[in-house]
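Teaching note: in complex prediction, the entire set of molecules is handled at once rather than each chain in isolation. The prompt given to students was simply: 'Predict the structure of this complex.' The entities are:
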Amino acid sequence: MSTIVFIDTRGDKLPKAAQEAVTYASQLAGGPVTAVTFGNASNLESLGAQGASKVIVARGVSTVDGQQLTKLVADVAAQLNATTIVCVHDATGKAVAPRLAARLKAGHVAAALGLPVDSRFKRNVFSGKAQAWVEVTSPVKVISLMPNSVAIANGGGTATVEDYAGDLGPARIAVKEVRKAGTGIPLPEAELVVSAGRGMKGPEHWAPVEELATLLGAATACSRPVADMHWRPHHEHVGQTGVAIRPNLYIAIGISGAIQHLAGVNQSKVICVINKDPEAPFFKAADYGIVGDAFEVLPKLIEAAKKLNAER
Amino acid sequence: MKILVLLSQVPDTTSRIAFTNNNTQYDASGVTFIVNPYDEWYALVRALELKEAAGTGTVTTITVGGADTEATIRKGLAIGADEAVRVDAQPTDAMQVAEQVAAYAKDKGFDLVLAGKETIDHNGGQVGAMVAELLDLPYVPLASKLDIAGTTATVERDVPGGVEVLEVSLPLAIGASKGMAEQRIPNMRGIMAARTKPLTVVPAAAVSEVARTVQFELPPGKGAVKMIPAEDAGKLIELLHTEAKVI
Ligand SMILES: Cc1cc2nc3c(=O)[nH]c(=O)nc-3n(C[C@H](O)[C@H](O)[C@H](O)COP(=O)(O)OP(=O)(O)OC[C@H]3O[C@@H](n4cnc5c(N)ncnc54)[C@H](O)[C@@H]3O)c2cc1C
Ligand SMILES: Nc1ncnc2c1ncn2[C@@H]1O[C@H](COP(=O)(O)O)[C@@H](O)[C@H]1O
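The expected output is the structure of the full assembly:
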């Protein structure tokens, strides 16, 4: 009986989601866990602070080939007799966790929101409009943690780092190219998001939206019609059919708050709505609201953000 | 080229969400069901485009569900699928659905298996990858573009901060997300043709349960919204800092 955690550690520093997953796995296990990762990350020892006693890393594997990674995790799970395998509900986790579950005939909880209660895991269903409690009935469990749902632990430990020695076979998926899209903070990881909709009237009016986002250190997002009309890039589209996010702060400017839009943002901790129509449905989902013209309100917000930045 | 598209049935995006039987079951009374948007708009339409470009091939849809899913399945045929399969089982868990799909597909030699990124009711994003594992196929989740030349597929997928361009040999499984195709509205001819296209019902395979949903709950309602006068809009930034403590 042991718990292992599979994380993607690519990037300039250890991703937040990886630290959350290690924290969560060690809370689930009630003690230190073994983490499994791939690629060239340095500083893996520091995952000891989140509760990893050991990190096993498959150095040669740099591609995201779900089959190779599944074999990697399954191998470590078999060696350690793991009965709980924690993954992250992100792009890499989505290529690996369900495969792993199918391979091990294990029940899989996708996008778990926290620690289980009476062995039941909570997750969002109906695009965040409801939650479900899931019971895993198989002996082995695969739990994918929803990013941004646990606080990262910061203990004092250091993990030992060990290279994976097995053979993962040839990759069937080759990475030809990686194109950076957009600048700054990727939306799914952003803690603060400034978003705007059709109320902005045209792509030429986005400068103040971007300026406010930059001042706050926020990522930018938009409603679906805005992306469909090519006012903004597609990866900024949030909602039912776009990216689902759960930042600490979501500021919506000139967005009506249609149910399909809310489905992707209703998990945000604090929602602010700026709309000139007091009847806009978004106000019902908001914590703070301003009824007003975006073109008059935005300069005031920018001025206040500058003032705040100067003070801290 | 033989293409299999996984079509699931979900409540219309504007449906009221309520539960019955002590919050153990979704209350479907008065709810309109639709094809899961990712399956219909992206996976199915891209499958049809690829077949049309190749000038040959078949597009088969598969749905795990009861007889109540047949109207939804016909929509797929009206949009242009050649044939449909329904596995006669009520979906209870992603693995159960995946095992049913894999049991049907395993010896049929599909070159391409297309699922949606996720269902908008269950939101798991699991079934496509599970089917891929059970059929020993490579799988790309969150794919926003798919092109095929000969036996090589070029797939783009969104990753945080960018787009990855991947190359994979067929056969292959994909989780389709936005960008892969444009929604197609079925025309009268399609709707008429759908009535006579084959919809085969196959019995469920025996699978053992590994997980189940035991209870639902609705999120607690939001407290009252705090309104700030537009003239005093800067106050919002101050409150976000001092009161909400998020900036
Ligand atoms: C199956 C399905 C899936 C969908 N998925 C998504 C999705 O993922 N994401 C998404 O966003 N939508 C989605 N939609 C579309 C959704 O239903 C709405 O049409 C869309 O969200 C509306 O975008 P909007 O609020 O920017 O535009 P509008 O509805 O046009 O609203 C503009 C708002 O701006 C306000 N406004 C106008 N001028 C100003 C001004 N000067 N200052 C301040 N406010 C102003 C108006 O009062 C209005 O409330 C989906 C629809 C369907 C059917
Ligand atoms: N009952 C079902 N029948 C057929 N395909 C399904 C079913 N449920 C899910 N799928 C497919 O699997 C994808 C991911 O579903 P999920 O894992 O539920 O988010 C969907 O977009 C569908 O393509």
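Point out the following to students. Chain B has one domain: 2-219. The longest helix of chain B spans residues 37-54.
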